[in-house]
Write a structure and sequence with these properties.
globular, Rossmann fold, single chain, Dihydrodipicolinate Reductase, domain 2, 386 residues, 12 helices, 2 domains
């Protein structure tokens, strides 16, 4: 059956009541009306799991007690009933086992970031995805913004020239208060190394900043020196990150990420200065891209205009002047993943370099960044190769 004549059936692991990101994934996946949630295991708490399934109007028989039961049971269903892909929205520690289980059951995967708990798991997951030949999408959702894609097009076209300097920041005050001691689920696992891994803020938001830098410039980070800090008592993971970067093309950079930056909400900003021009993009005002050319007045490019790169223009949904934001950008990651999954199910799989979303290789790259940042900091902010 041609999958373009039906919605794709989506499963979910995690995202039960009390979860923030689970609801975001469900809304993003549904925005283009190309998917339907068909099955899930939403919490290790049985009451929460069943209540979430009922709230989402799922067949109780498709609300499973564990992800292993879900993978096996879904794989055993007829092809016209089983899920086409699964979204993984659990804490980092469980990403690898869940992804491996579904990939081995023949199910495509969309996974929240960071991709795995350890670097070894990330390297193994790359092998599993390649052996399975299935679609694996990672939700670095900020790459879905139309004006981020416009910035990427400017640099990838060569018209900006070599990158000389990059400043990227992701600043929050989310952990300036010890929310993990006040019952906030999202803070509890993010500050727990047994669930989060060796990185705290560096993994949670630092990987977004790192991914955004390399996505837009196309110029990989070659070396870095990082200083990771923890300020609140009783915490062991980093809350604040400052890193100097050396790029493959010879440019230099600064990456700063913090979750104790008092007064900041979700302050993601990218500035790139190149030989022939520069850009500035801020996530809290995402419909605009500041653009400079040497010896010309500053321009402000806006979303949904005819002068944009075709890919950036196609990433928008509504006319200019009507703001688009976080959910729409998140949905663009799902749009790309859904297209790739449909092509695969129809026997016409896309090559991985044609994927319009972050892949398992981007996930490995981010895990390498986390580990190298921690290594550098432990060595007194020594330079390390990435």
């Amino acid at each position: 059956m041609d999958t373009w004549t039906r919605k794709l059936r989506m499963g979910m692991v995690g995202g039960g009541q009390g979860s923030f990101i689970g609801g975001v994934h469900r809304m993003a996946a549904a925005l283009e009306q190309q998917t339907e949630l068909a099955a899930g295991v939403f919490s290790r708490d049985a009451d929460n799991n069943r209540a979430t399934g009922a709230q989402l109007y799922l067949d109780p028989a498709r609300v499973y007690d564990s992800y292993t039961d879900m993978a096996a049971s879904e794989a055993a269903l007829p092809a016209d009933q089983r899920i086409d892909f699964v979204s993984i929205v659990t804490p980092n520690v469980s990403h690898f086992d869940i992804a491996r289980t579904f990939l081995q059951a023949g199910v495509h995967v969309v996974c929240d970031k960071p991709m795995t708990y350890t670097l070894d798991e990330a390297e193994e997951l790359v092998r599993i995805v390649e052996d399975a030949g299935l679609v694996f999408a990672l939700t670095h959702n900020y790459t879905g913004h139309p004006m981020v894609r416009q910035a990427r097009a400017l640099f990838r076209s060569g018209q900006m020239g070599p990158v000389r300097k990059v400043i990227v920041e992701y600043l929050q005050d989310f952990l300036a208060t010890p929310h993990e001691k006040l019952g906030m689920k999202q803070a509890e696992w993010r500050t727990d190394p047994e669930q989060s891994g060796i990185g705290g803020t560096i993994g949670d938001v630092g990987t977004h900043a790192f991914n955004l830098l390399e996505y837009v410039t196309g110029d990989p980070v070659r070396e870095m020196c990082a200083d990771l800090s923890t300020f609140l008592p009783d915490r062991t993971l980093d809350e604040d990150v400052n890193a100097l970067l050396r790029l493959e093309g010879g440019g230099k950079g600064l990456l700063t990420a913090s979750q104790i930056a008092t007064g900041e909400e979700n302050g993601i900003t990218l500035r790139v200065y190149a030989e022939h021009g520069a850009i500035r993009w801020a996530q809290e005002n995402p419909n605009y891209l500041d653009f400079w050319r040497v010896d010309e007045p500053r321009q402000t490019l806006t979303r949904a205009q005819g002068y944009l790169d075709a890919h950036a223009a196609e990433s928008g949904r509504i006319p200019p002047g009507h703001p688009e934001g976080y959910l729409e950008a998140f949905a663009q990651i799902y749009v790309g993943a859904i297209t790739a999954i449909r092509r695969h199910l129809d026997g016409r799989p896309l090559p991985i370099d044609a994927y319009d979303f972050p892949t398992v290789h981007d996930g490995l790259r981010a895990m390498q960044f986390i580990y190298k940042a921690v290594e550098s900091s432990q060595k007194g902010a020594a330079w390390v190769a990435l």
